[in-house]
């Protein structure tokens, strides 16, 4: 960051009331966290600093560099789980002795899935290759690849690349390592590329708030979970889908959301917020093009597997129907602290927890209905990112599974929906720290790990923080003058055809306050003290 006149330590906040809303937001001028971060490099940007004229270090490139640093830290965090050792028999094996994956908190699904999904074997193909689990017991079950199509193919391609590397290493062309180590590193490389795409898309979507993408780049959740599973693929597709919608390319947006849904289903949830906002603005034809493109893309990617490998393709849906509540779900929290077993206990093979599935689905649909009402009754049309965050958060809070890496889904949406740096960084730190008690809970009390109650206590804290984020977003929806994005006259950077659109369908709301469309001078002054100022 530059100081005033390239040397003077001038840090006074410029008068920004009369500046155009399309200009770039400078976080260091009003956000206390950003201001504190800049102190080691000269303090906040100076009043007369030349902005946007450096030939190379653009804000986007700085954000991408920060993302590379964050992803590098994430790789080193997992590196302890790809260490090798020589056994007494002279064999080289992966060093997961004495619960190393939990004690070092480096666990990643990528490593065990290499063998569990039969990716280490030659001649296998996802959804065609099956194996028997718990053979010879009452829990015997035929299993297939358990991931959606694109995630499964992603794993298979990386496994083939790892096999090719291993062959080249045996010929002396490349350095050698255990195939699973090579597989992890190849996977991490492509997941890093996917997260860089996510950062790029958020920066382009945020437009005049481009520096907000730095939160996506250096999020503690990225450091901890970028390589825990394969979710960066879906975040990249979801973020680029929102960017395409923002650029008024509804068909491309639908294609990208369909691609994301073929990796993880959550990008399809965006169609709900877009639908109710298009109803409010009477832009249903545009929404129909997006929804049609998303459905067509998802069907085109899945149809060959549905037709020719149907049993293997259905494994993902079967498993999610039959699996019980995970340790990190609110249902398990309720069951543990109250002793109530009404959500269905342990089930045998092929059985589904019917009550749990019904309760989870009903709660999610009820919250979606409430979000739709908010979208149609608010004094001013909510922003797309606000509703998308609410819907995805509602799914995670009501779902029977909240795998730790699912929190990555919220990161780009949160930055676009509520760009308040201290608040978001606080949530990300809390969510990332849940990883530590999770690992020591999995280690087991007998191995000096943590009791389940300690872990579930941190889960409750995480969920409460996410609920508070939702409450704050709802508050800004009903009080748009306090919206950090809209306070300077911007409508909706993610809105696309909705940006600046007239409200045509608005539900009546009891106690509606007048004057909600435009912020007053007092509101603007108050909001500027809590948000980033415009350069």
UniProtKB/TrEMBL annotation:
Protein name: Predicted integral membrane protein
Family: Belongs to the glycosyltransferase 87 family.
Gene Ontology MF annotations: hexosyltransferase activity
Major site of localization recorded for this protein: membrane
Keyword Glycosyltransferase: no
Keywords: Cell membrane, Membrane, Transferase, Transmembrane, Transmembrane helix
Gene Ontology CC, one term: plasma membrane
Transmembrane stretches, start-end: 55-76, 180-203, 215-245, 251-279, 286-309, 354-376, 422-441, 453-474
Biased composition annotated in UniProt, kind: Polar residues: 518-535
Domain of life, per lineage: Bacteria
Region ranges (Disordered): 1-21, 508-535
Subcellular location: Cell membrane
Membrane topology annotation: Multi-pass membrane protein
